[in-house]
Amino acid sequence: MPQKPKILATQVVASSELFCIETVDLRFSNGEERRFERLAGGYNGAVLVVPLLNDDTVLLIKEYCVGMEDYEYYLPKGKVDAGEAMLAAANRELKEEVGYGARQLHELVAISQAPAYMRHRTHLVIARDLYEEKLQGDEPEPLEVLPLPLAELENWVMNGKITEARSIAALYLTRAWLDKQR
Amino acid sequence: MPQKPKILATQVVASSELFCIETVDLRFSNGEERRFERLAGGYNGAVLVVPLLNDDTVLLIKEYCVGMEDYEYYLPKGKVDAGEAMLAAANRELKEEVGYGARQLHELVAISQAPAYMRHRTHLVIARDLYEEKLQGDEPEPLEVLPLPLAELENWVMNGKITEARSIAALYLTRAWLDKQR
After folding, report:
1. Is residue A162 assigned to a domain?
2. Nearest CA in chain A to B6
């Protein structure tokens, strides 16, 4: 394991309501110096919830994604609010986006996305023993909720029906976790 | 499927050397209007390469990620250059980051990351029949290359050794694809 590069300086170079971009000047252990850019913020982390209707079926939501300019199917997710417990955030997002709460919440593992550009960590949370409860979120239109039979996971991904990387990772990990429970 | 929202306006509100942030004003089919922000660019797409040393072993790289301020293990990847064929980009990244070329390249599927915030599509490419060839990349220090036995995938993810969402998704999809070939 090489020694970590030394951070010589960081500087905010651009920002908007949602994003903050900073430069980071690094000196690597071999003496090389480089300037990188990254997105600051997101340090409270995020949750991605796997709502198990039963041991063979997961609930997905369908939401309009302005990045892709299309509707996408994925798992409910959101940021952990300041001061909010991580599992509480998972249950809140589940109630807001899917219309269920969970009596059992289990953190599987935390994963990263674009680790070269963000500090963002996403906690994958399995939600079981569901009950109906709807909380009002800030969605501009109602989200469609769709059951995915876990046996169909490969097909849905290979056919392009599910594309989002964190959801795909979470669904495979959930399947492996369930296999171990049986 | 609801009708897609109408894009009323887009405007660049901040930019740096690497990032460009734009606002998008949307009117949803129910009449709700909202302003969102997204990262513009990345429209050529990216490649994420799964280098198979053999049918049981994948090669990972270890690289310093300034977002996480730590070294991370993941699959070789990079942007497709303007005018470059997607599979050629995959082979170039493989040569630059791992020191191998591949005689067989197969696109598995394309996935998204943060589809609400980026248009970014990542083509997952399985690379087989490898041969040694090193191309000079722009890395500040040599990358460590590490073989991952595919049978160990779950353990490495659950122990936090592999965290990057796209790599986890690609490795599970590769394992499923290999199972089908057998």
Report:
1. yes
2. A69
| Per-residue pLDDT, B97 | 96
Q: Is the pLDDT of residue A47 over 90?
A: yes
- List the domain range (segments joined by +) for residue B149: 46-181
Chain A: residue whose CA lies nearest to B179: A154
Residue A42 pLDDT:
82
B1, part of any domain = no
Burial readout B70-90 (b: 16 or more C-beta within 10 A, e: otherwise): ebbbbbbbbbbeeeeebbebb
Burial of residue B114 (CB within 10 Å: 0-12, 13-18, 19+) is buried
Domain count along chain A: 2
Nearest CA in chain B to A171: B169
Would the CB atoms of A68 and B119 count as touching at under 8 Å? yes
In this structure, the answer to whether residues B163 and B73 fall within a common structural domain is: yes
Q: Are residues A50 and A27 part of one domain? A: no
- A11 CB neighbours in chain B (<8 A) are none
- Please tell me which of the candidates B4, B14, B120 has its beta carbon nearest to residue A14: B14
Do B150 and B123 reside in the same domain of the chain? yes
Chain B environment of A163 (Cβ under 8 Å): 110-112, 115
For the residues B105-121, what does the mean pLDDT come to?
A: 95
Residue in A32, A37, A108 closest to B141 by CB: A32
For residues A91 and A30, membership in a common domain is answered with no
For residue A170, what is the domain's CATH number?
3.90.79.10
Its pTM surpasses 0.80: yes
Question: What is the ipTM for the molecules in this complex?
Answer: 0.97
| DSSP string of B34-88, one letter each residue | EEEEEE---TT-EEEEEEEEETTEEEEEEEEETTTTEEEEE--EEEPPTT--HHH
Nearest CB partner across the interface for A67, out of B4, B67, B119: B119
